[in-house]
From TrEMBL:
EC numbers, comma separated: 2.1.2.11
Protein name, UniProt field: 3-methyl-2-oxobutanoate hydroxymethyltransferase
Cofactor(s) the record lists: Mg(2+)
Pathway where this protein functions: Cofactor biosynthesis; (R)-pantothenate biosynthesis; (R)-pantoate from 3-methyl-2-oxobutanoate: step 1/2
Function: Catalyzes the reversible reaction in which hydroxymethyl group from 5,10-methylenetetrahydrofolate is transferred onto alpha-ketoisovalerate to form ketopantoate.
Keywords: Cytoplasm, Magnesium, Metal-binding, Pantothenate biosynthesis, Transferase
GO molecular function terms noted in the UniProt entry: 3-methyl-2-oxobutanoate hydroxymethyltransferase activity; magnesium ion binding
Lineage, opening ranks: Bacteria, Bacillati, Bacillota, Clostridia, Eubacteriales
Keyword Cytoplasm appears in the UniProt entry: yes
Keyword Transferase in annotation: yes
Family: Belongs to the PanB family.
Length: 276
């Protein structure tokens, strides 16, 4: 399949075709996703928890993100890739935001970047867009500011909070974002936003709209610390991997592995070898 562009994503919204996407952090996952026909891939700063074992996304650095984006690009050369800007790579100033957004394109060949926040981050979105870089917004539950939100909690569940989420969505579109991700808000709010905005609106844990995102480590059953309500597990890789490792350990200890199938035999006739 041909690599999709912004124009395909606009068209898909107009034609009411759903966009299916996941996060990917490494070469194998990216290559499986591309082979399966995934519409796009996010190299999320959730890599902090899913790959690096941190308790949150806060410690993740630009270097972590760039390096994982590079691996994902190598695994999925024909897929639209979104680089996720880590905490403190865009919060300080518009200039810092533009410079770090540019690094994703120059150093990791991503197609766009994503950052968290609505009204409060609109000037960053505008500055990055004016630099010629496609921006995806991210509103609702924004994990980098979960300290302010009182934890990883669903947003927009009462009327005032729902209004705030809708205002954020409008601000993100107004600032020039090409698409927006809505995380963990009621489906009624998400549906309203998707109808209101001209840009594509995607959901993670926010009900039906123009497309769905899941975290690959959740979908595959690799991430074990906790499972949000919105996750559907399509596999249990943790169980499969632990079982495979256990069998390997047993076979090494018993001598059942390796067998004659797993060794390289000497090429010379045996007599010559014994003379050496
Ligand atoms: O980092 C990530 O995977 C994300 C999703 C949780 C939306 O930003
Ligand atoms: Na993120």
């Amino acid at each position: 399949a041909k690599k999709k562009s912004i124009l395909d994503f606009y068209r898909m919204k107009q034609e009411k075709q759903q966009v299916a996407w996941i996060t990917a952090y490494d070469f194998p996952t990216a290559s499986f996703a591309e082979a399966a026909g995934m519409d796009m891939l996010l190299v999320g700063d959730s890599l902090g928890m899913c790959v690096l074992g941190y308790q949150s996304t806060i410690p993740v650095t630009m270097e972590d993100c760039i390096s994982h984006c590079q691996a994902v690009r190598r695994g999925a050369p024909k897929t639209w890739i979104i680089g996720d800007m880590p905490f403190m790579s865009y919060q300080s100033s518009d200039q810092q935001a533009v410079e770090n957004a540019g690094r994703f394109l120059k150093e990791a060949d991503t197609d766009c970047i994503k950052l968290e926040g609505g009204i409060r981050i609109a000037s960053r979105i505008k500055a990055i867009t004016e630099a010629g870089i496609a921006v995806m917004g991210h509103i609702g539950l924004t994990p980098q500011s979960s300290g302010q939100l009182g934890g990883h909690k669903a947003q927009g569940r009462d009327v005032n909070n729902a209004r705030a989420v809708i205002k954020d969505a409008l601000a993100v579109q107004e600032a020039g974002a090409y698409a927006i991700l809505v995380e963990a808000v009621p489906p009624e709010v998400t549906g309203f936003i998707a109808d209101l905005l001209t840009i594509p609106v995607y959901s993670i844990g926010a009900g039906p709209c123009d497309g769905q995102l899941l975290i690959s480590a959740d979908l595959l059953g690799q991430f074990q610390a906790f499972t949000p309500k919105f996750v559907k597990k399509y596999a249990n890789v943790a169980e499969i991997a632990t079982k495979a490792f256990g069998e390997y350990i047993e076979e090494v200890r018993s001598g059942a592995f390796p067998t004659d199938d797993h060794v390289y035999h000497i090429i010379e006739p045996e007599e010559d070898f014994q003379k050496m």
